[in-house]
Request: fold
Amino acid sequence: MRSVIIRDKLLGMGKDKSSKLFILVFMLILGSLNKGYAGSDKENLAANPSPHLLTAEEFLKKAEYAKAVEELKLILSENPANTKTRLDLALAYLKLKNYQSSVDECQIILKTHPEEGVVHYVLGIVYYEMGNWNDAISSFKQSARLEPSLTANSHFNMGMTYFMAGLGIMAKKEFSKVINMESSTELREEARRVMDSIEKGRMDTILKEEGQVSYSRGIEKFKRGDYKGAVREFEQASVASTNEAAIYYYLGYTYYKLGNYPAAVNSLDAARVLKPEEGKFIFFTGIAALQTGDEDRAEMEFKKAIAGKTKYKDAAVRYLDLIKEARRSRKRWRLSIDANGQSDSNVTLFSSGDQTSQESDNLLNTTLLGEYKFINRPDLTLGARYIFYQDQYRDLKEFDFQGHFGRLYTRYKLDPLVFGLEYEKYFYYLDDKPYQTSNKVTPGITFTETRNLFTKMELSYQWINAKGSDYDYLEGIRRTASLSQYFYFMNRKGLLTLSYKYTEEDLNDRTGTQPFLLGRKGFRPGDPYLPPVEEQGTEEFPFFQSYSYSGHEISARLSLPLIFSININLTGEYLIRNYSSLDQYIYHDQRPFDTLGRPNFIKTENMLIPVLYENRTNLFRERGDNRFTYSIEISREIFDHFKVSLRYRDITNNSNIGRAAPTDRNYDRNLFYLTFNANF
Reply:
């Protein structure tokens, strides 16, 4: 018996051979205690008009004890002398199996009201559950002396406690008292039955049979969705058969279904004492602990489930990711650093795909991001973000670019919708000189259809201001509207994103009389027989290039996990741009001499013919572009805060302003990236 008592103390249950009668009487007494205090509700309301009182009573009736505890604490913070509320708190702690807290509350009452027999009775039950037989017997003796209505029940419970302590003679003495008292017929019969079982040595067999019956009834009620009824059956089964881990598992699982997560954790812990390596016990303990808000305990259990190589390994990994996401979302600040080396086959000016160099180069890109959330509630977020961006080329220094991006944003969650609003301010520098500034406003709505599917809609309005006259043709307004669909799969490890964006740019466009040199794509550099194309507008025939357009862009992005924690991202984009005005060019395609004074020739099929006179052509063309972009990226996280990735990107721009015009709008780009990221 001694080993049984020690093990029960480890379990925190103290019910190895006790009868289901104890739990039955215990539950009846708790009900009578609540009813006994119900009559004084009006007095308590008058003495303590706390708005939390009725809420706490409602939670107690619904057996939502964790919520009741929070309300009762608030009431006591307003009126610490409220004895009835403190006893309710002790009972709620008892139902949550938080025995020490229940003891503490009872002892607080007894310091000022030592004559309260009901409190002694509850304290005896708590000590019994803790396996503290001596203190339980002392408390039941006090309740038998001080509270006449509980005298018979107190002696019955003393009998059960003596029996648990291995004192059969003392147990029979207490049961005899109950039989000879004017107590309820049911209680006397139960006392007689228990005493008879003790005398005949049949207690273990009876309890085991009763436990199996209660367990079977609990399973049936659980399947029907009668979780409260199932809890009662499993509790009675656990009293009778404390060696059955499955009983404690189902008791914990049922508590979880009822939302009583602390009780679920305690019951699952009891199951794990009996079967420490059972995978589902470990995994579901982690889930229940997570619901109580104990992320550290949940993380520990999920790591055990993974290390144990159980069938719950993948699910445990997913829950660990959820814990990381939750911690990240609660964190007010974020810092990210990107450093990547790039190889670009056709260096292009940032934010303007038309300014291509037709030359390749290598560059180093650095991106720094800092973010802080001033308000970070589940329903409301208000934050600011700053990004520093810099491209430094090895040879083409005139394309060195630097950007400063500031953002203020807010989001308000009203399930299933999230409303967002952002304001962004940009400062751009080109070759260490001011290039552009921009202001942008973006409202948006996100609609969550399911946990794995949501849709996002955004509108934006952007003012673009040029710094200096070299690029004033890019000054104007940009308007966009976008619709994106996000679909998670593979336990949210995979993501498919489909997007459509409509863009209108109303810019100043490019016109005037200044000369500029155009490229010679397709010819050998330095060929003396083929002159460079030189464009010269005049006041009579000014050239005009359109940069204002309306565009339609569709894109798809697929992110998939591979082996060894490697991820792959595949992206495809298709962009159509229809420019709003005719491009007009006036250029000299035939001149007797080039700019160096050398004779020019026209190349025919068989010979070179000298150019004898000047010919000038006036060209009008309505521009339209189609751009294809695809990329592939492979990345892997290193530890918790670092990531390395390798990316290839291909861009092909097809335009009807091609070699027939002096300005070739057709271009290709191939880019390779090697990126290191640190995220804190």
